Description:
The structure holds two protein chains of two kinds.
Chain A: H1 3-18, H2 22-46, E1 52-57, H3 58-62, H4 65-74, E2 79-84, H5 87-96, E3 101-105, E4 110-114, H6 120-141, H7 146-153, H8 170-204, H9 207-212, H10 217-249, H11 259-287, H12 294-317, H13 322-327, H14 334-344, H15 351-378, H16 387-392
Helix pairs in contact in A: 1-10, 2-8, 2-10, 6-7, 8-10, 8-11, 8-12, 8-14, 10-11, 11-12, 11-14, 11-15, 12-14
Chain B: E1 2-11, E2 14-24, E3 29-33, H1 40-47, E4 55-60, E5 63-64, H2 67-70, E6 73-76, H3 88-98, H4 103-116, H5 132-144, E7 150-154, H6 162-177, E8 181-185, H7 189-195, E9 198-203, E10 206-211, H8 213-218, E11 223-229, E12 241-247, E13 250-255, H9 261-271, E14 273-280, H10 284-293
Parallel strand pairs in B: 3-8, 3-9, 6-7, 7-8
Antiparallel strand pairs in B: 1-2, 1-4, 4-5, 9-10, 11-13, 11-14, 12-13
Helix pairs in contact in B: 3-4
Amino acid sequence: xxxxxxxxxxxxxxxxxxxxxxxxxxxxxxxxxxxxxxxxxxxxxxxxxxxxxxxxxxxxxxxxxxxxxxxxxxxxxxxxxxxxxxxxxxxxxxxxxxxxxxxxxxxxxxxxxxxxxxxxxxxxxxxxxxxxxxxxxxxxxxxxxxxxxxxxxxxxxxxxxxxxxxxxxxxxxxxxxxxxxxxxxxxxxxxxxxxxxxxxxxxxxxxxxxxxxxxxxxxxxxxxxxxxxxxxxxxxxxxxxxxxxxxxxxxxxxxxxxxxxxxxxxxxxxxxxxxxxxxxxxxxxxxxxxxxxxxxxxxxxxxxxxxxxxxxxxxxxxxxxxxxxxxxxxxxxxxxxxxxxxxxxxxxxxxxxxxxxxxxxxxxxxxxxxxxxxxxxxxxxxxxxxxxxxxxxxxxxxxxx
Amino acid sequence: xxxxxxxxxxxxxxxxxxxxxxxxxxxxxxxxxxxxxxxxxxxxxxxxxxxxxxxxxxxxxxxxxxxxxxxxxxxxxxxxxxxxxxxxxxxxxxxxxxxxxxxxxxxxxxxxxxxxxxxxxxxxxxxxxxxxxxxxxxxxxxxxxxxxxxxxxxxxxxxxxxxxxxxxxxxxxxxxxxxxxxxxxxxxxxxxxxxxxxxxxxxxxxxxxxxxxxxxxxxxxxxxxxxxxxxxxxxxxxxxxxxxxxxxxxxxxxxxxxxxxxxxxxxxxxxxxxxxxxxxxxxxxxxxxxxxxx
Lengths: 401, 294
């Protein structure tokens, strides 16, 4: 049997062992809910501003309706305009809360009845329209041609030019960064530990000896890492697709443009981060003599993973910090930190392939070191090995023709 | 045929194997005996490629043992190891496939062996649900499922009840009759004596003795039992023989090579009527004790 066939068999066993397990189903649902919530909640919060309900009392006031609607749209204010038959009825509706403001016009002036106060925007909007109607009346009575009046009252375009524009959708970006950080931290820790547990189980139950009698340790390691990794990738893909669907369903104007880049980059950094951490976790699993010792040997691996996640909050606090940018290039921190930075926006495009390249180089080195430790420690009896002792192990070479 | 030639291996300062040579012919059962730490497991692990010996060579049918040879070996390690949560049929099929069988053949072989070893009704159970004895059977099935040419069984009888011991001996015999070479280790010497064609005694990493039981016996001074109706202690002054034991069955003498037993008979007759005079054929246990105390 070729090495590839053995690796495939081993990977398939890992996958079948996990598929259909309750843990996989539950964690998938929980993560999908988390991501969908992260996508949907900001847009719901942002889009929930209720319209200002304006009641127009009497015919003169009711003539304001078209102008009111047009101007409100221009001012990005949502209004709902209704006609009210009498002032008494309008007051009653305002008191009941079914109207925010009731407007009536007389020769002496205009009255706006409100419950307590009116928002400054709505107030300014009403005042501007009433003024415009008044001016039109005065000019019309003075014999000014309607075309001239329209021209005089036409809006002068005002272009606002911000020198330091605030980022759009800040809340959505923060949420996306945190969700990306949590997701990658959780899933890398989960699947890293799955590799360590699997290796430790094979070592402590001596299944490794039976396996090594048939296949090379390298094939065993590769099959295990690939099999478990594919499960992780599939689970993450389900979660990401749930996120994309949620993204498509909610009002897209509220979704930051970085979201479309973020979701695939979560998958990419999972693949890179998993490759880096899985081999280290496999080496850790091979060090123990008993399953209970796993926590000790995996602690040095879980720490940097956690640090990368915690730095996401630092990145949110100061997104333009050079230290955060540098930290996101350190391979142990990158898997959680880089996608979070992408979510926050403002990452130059070239940083992404550069970071991926650095990851690939470190993965190569990690595979070499971790494989050596794994092979040396897997079928070794006796007490738990320290990392230091494991690094000094000479990997036994299998005799082969 | 399996050949170990001048095998050496050290664990740090400890010499685990020191110039160990032995062979196992096709159809032959060879028993490896010795104290704990004598090197039995190390030798077997070297054959299975679990450790790479520091020196010496390992051959199968004249070729150095590599992956292509090893995939045709079956192995049962001293400390049993299988996936506790995997179902018997799928687990056995998996190991058969790792040994190069295609999916269909592997599945058929797995089912056949489970039935043969009395686990036919439990193919869909998880290993962890089985009793200790049945887990041992499953471990044996893993060693046998791919129809190996060589079986390496490390302490296969440890912890088995008498019935299971008989079943395992029977299976080993069947395999030997089919032409398989079998190397196994055990501390149960009476079993080794009963099952093996040849015996290799290891001590401190060296081969102390090897051969069939009669061959091993020849290497030791003959043991002579003499019962005389007369005073005790007559034998203590004998030349060319020393007293091993004295009890109601008479005296057990170790006769030095070159000593004429007739002189001993004559000496006995001078003491009184000789009721018994004859050689005792020492079992493996006696031989083993003599070897290790020598």
